[in-house]
Specification:
alpha+beta, three-stranded antiparallel β-sheet, 1 helix, flat
């Protein structure tokens, strides 16, 4: 996603893979969407994931 789509990257953090992170990111997106925040989760490699925070 890029700034052309109206999203501004404000933070990124690499963490160890955890199957529960999808639940956390979903919870954050549902809870904080009225604060103009969007959270993303992507696989970095087999052991690590990246959590990104965007401002809309």
């Amino acid at each position: 996603m890029s700034e052309e789509e109206g999203l501004k990257l404000i933070g990124i953090q690499e963490v160890y893979k955890n199957d529960e992170l999808y639940k956390l990111v979903d919870f954050l997106n549902k809870t904080l969407k009225n604060k103009n925040l969007v959270f993303g989760l992507a696989m970095q490699d087999e052991d690590k994931m990246v959590i990104s925070i965007y401002e809309t």
